[in-house]
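User: Hey, quick favor. My workstation is busy. Could you predict this chain's structure for me?
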Amino acid sequence: MARGDIVKMQNLNQDVFLCIIKRGETIRIRVNDILYVESRERKLHIHTASAVYEYNDKISHVRELLETEGFIRCHQSFLVRQAAVTVIRRDRLVVGEREIQISRKYKEEVMRLLAPNESSDTGEKAFLSEPEDDNFGNLLCISGPYAGKLVKLVPEQEILIGRDGDICDIVFNLPRISRQHLRLIFHNYKRCYEVMDLSTNGTYMNGEIRLERNVRYEIEMGQTLYLGDGITVLKLV
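Assistant: No problem, here it is.
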């Protein structure tokens, strides 16, 4: 670390901050605002959604400070906040608008923590449930963070899909997914799905027809729903 640069952790009102002291100036970065840390050109670059902070340090040092706060190293040059990861691929993570490579050295640990139901050797997906009873509806994620996952839906039970983990039953942590994005009910007696879009960025049936917000639709089985910008695609089966 260059002379004059000091980095430490600070707890304040239940929030945790990373504090960087440079030339008598203290920069306080809320840890939960950090998306990832990048080591480049002998400096560390701390990325948040709104700013990038640069200072002199080694990534191994900041890793010691942040690993108990939900951060994981996925590459020699990258440390990411697990909760900020929106898409997990076989060799990359998507954090915000950045794709970050997963190096072979860290892949096993990354997959163990972020995708425990994935098979890193074959790329096969593990299903959440199997469609054993025709009385249940089934929601298949064919694209997005849970690609390949199948969720069984109890008839007449409302399911809320969105970004807010405190109120939603199925959570997609993606920028263009609303806190409450979609309400879904499977009606067994009609063999159809009741769908209501609650979002800002929209829900599109079969990728073409945008559903009107706060309007109830009855949609037949077999149709697909594209959420937000189309990264997440769900099939009603």
